Amino acid sequence: MFQRIIGFFNNQNVKWLGRFGYYLLILLLLFFMYGFNDASSGSYIYNDF
């Protein structure tokens, strides 16, 4: 049973799908954190220079 679980997680498709989901989650979180500000309302780092 343990060998089947290890074999499942060593599958290239499962690894690719895991990385895809991980990076998609990061991208979506960054979008939701910073994506809803328009150009005049955001706290952009260079606004005060």
From TrEMBL:
It comes from the Bacteria. Keywords: Membrane, Transmembrane, Transmembrane helix. Pfam families: DltX. The chain crosses the membrane at residues 20-36. This is Teichoic acid D-Ala incorporation-associated protein DltX.
